[in-house]
Amino acid sequence: MSHDHQSHTHGGHGHLSANYGRAFAIGISLNLAYVAGEAIAGIVSGSLALLADAGHNLGDVLGLGMSWGAAVLGRRQPSGRFTYGLRSSSILAALANAIILLVVTGGIAWEAILRITNPVPVASGIVIAIAAAGIFINGGTAMLFASGSADLNIRSAFLHLAADALVTAGVVVTGVAIWSTHWLWLDPAVSLVVSAVIVFGTWGLLKSAIGLALNAVPEGIDAAAVRSHLLALPGVTGLHDLHIWGMSTTETALTCHLIMPDGHPGDGMLSAITQQLHHRFGIEHATIQIELADTDEACALTPEHVV
After folding, report:
1. Residue 223 β-bridge partners
2. Alpha carbon distance 134, 141 (integer Å)
3. Which residue, 60, 63, 50, is CA-closest to 168?
4. In terms of domains, do 176 and 245 share one?
5. What pairing do the DSSP bridges indicate for beta strands 238-246 and 285-291?
6. What would the pLDDT profile of 108-136 be if each residue is shown by its tens digit?
């Protein structure tokens, strides 16, 4: 049996989140300050768009906190109980971020629907000023995470902030339109449009996070190509019990049984196989069991449906 864990990165995989502590600290601090100011402005101006955006930003702060915590936990060493460490906490954070974003957006949309038929006066000048500041705060902070899109946890933080920038941009447009036309229904109408855009953008994140949480083959890895590669190795006549899953939002693991009737290929060959899996497919943590097929007794894990 061979076991290999590559520590360097490939194709965007690796400990990317380790470099984002400062970005998380900046993002959380700026957003907390902005939430307080925006909530006060929303109450004073009577703007649903501002209050909704403040709630959205508060959810964003929570999401950033979870992402940061997951990044820290992911660097903890394995223990007797958590033998893989706490790497998978980044998957849970990405999933929670997607759910929070959708729930908060749903609340905004529901309140907007109620207000379309009963619009309220809005102090458009305050709305424009506060929302314009939010574009720079959220957009600028989002750029701190833009380079980490290969890490689903970092990408969830980026999407959270980018969505907030989009919401505040919509709020600015709303404020300008209300100021020039006095159409109060624009406030909830624009909130609905922005909510739809956020849901559309978040759906892919939710799908990816659920897949990783359920140990699906990570996106970007072709399981059939991995199988073909292993079967084409010298001396390999069969393959079964192949599993590929995400240990975290950046690290992929693989286990399999290779049938090699000519005998164990040696540690050098096994090391070469794991290196190939790493460089070609981005699989950092490979465990390979060698079977000689020298008896009539088949491995109990041979059938595909047995895990």
Report:
1. none
2. 10
3. 50
4. no
5. unpaired
6. 788 788 878 777 676 777 778 877 888 88
